[in-house]
Amino acid sequence: MLARFGVVAMATPLAVRLPPALRPPLLSSKLSTSFPPFLSCPPKRLLRSLPTDTRGPMVVADDGMYGRKQVVSLTPQLYHYVLSNVREPQILRELREETSTMHGSQMQVSPDQAQLLAMLVQIMGAKKCIEVGIYTGYSSLAVALALPDSGRLVACERDGRCLEVAKRFYEQAGVSHKVDVRHALAVDTLNSLILSGETNSYDFAFVDADKRMYNEYFELLFQLVRTGGLIIMDNVLWHGKVADPGVNDPKTVSLRNFNRKILEDKRISISMVPVGDGMTICRKIADTSAQGLGCV
Ligand SMILES: C[S@@+](CC[C@H](N)C(=O)[O-])C[C@H]1O[C@@H](n2cnc3c(N)ncnc32)[C@H](O)[C@@H]1O
């Protein structure tokens, strides 16, 4: 049964509810001039959409089954606060700033996403990782920094020009010995890893490439990741389009079908996390179709 959700404005502006010592700079009157230390210039996309009313809405489940649970909905102001609470390594900040002037800069994962990826690598004690879709290397550098010195990240990317930026930053960060760059179509690289006998050996995979290929990437990575390993799929909320039945372009349909498929997939446990554009964390719990295994 589908829950019904409504949106309500918070009764009191957040800035009023927080004691002064806990108020982040952005919640002061300098709304448009104060930025987290790692943002050297105003985040343009955020500023363009800053609301005049600084109260944030809450999404409320008005279905009795969810007990009128209130879930915070990120406003530009609140997201700015999230960013101001990210510990972003200097080298990642430099890469983000350099990339911000490049075509496609909106594609890189956000600092809060990268921090979560790095933490998952550390929690897993991961030694072997794969990333599909490198661009200029922001998320892959976050993963490589989190790996031990003996760790290895296979970095799959088809665009040689953005790979040059990524490789320069791997060098600068002192992690290039951990990164095995594969300049090719990702499906070819993943198939070659399978053919070379690397199935069931990877601890962690992150997918952030062609959205129409998500199912193919997932099935190949499922073979490569060990039982207990993670496959993390980015953009699963696709700017909200997956939840809009009126949007049926090929990428949206592919992501919607993929989300539906993994919900039913008893080989994995899953958690869809609304960070960035949505990431689903999939944990491999069985090698083959496991009838009767509980799905979390
Ligand atoms: C969203 S960007 C990745 C952003 C990256 N995760 C970051 O944080 O900077 C997607 C990348 O996937 C690459 N890509 C798309 N299709 C691909 C394919 N079939 N094989 C390899 N790379 C592909 C694109 O060239 C692009 O650089």
TrEMBL record:
Keywords: Methyltransferase, S-adenosyl-L-methionine, Transferase
Gene3D superfamilies: Vaccinia Virus protein VP39 (3.40.50.150)
Pfam families from the UniProt entry: Methyltransf_3
PROSITE patterns: SAM_OMT_I
Annotated GO biological process: methylation
InterPro entries: Cation-dep_OMT, SAM-dependent_MTases_sf, SAM_O-MeTrfase
GO molecular function: O-methyltransferase activity; S-adenosylmethionine-dependent methyltransferase activity
Homology family: Belongs to the class I-like SAM-binding methyltransferase superfamily. Cation-dependent O-methyltransferase family.
Protein name listed in UniProt: Caffeoyl-CoA O-methyltransferase 1
Species annotation: Rhynchospora pubera
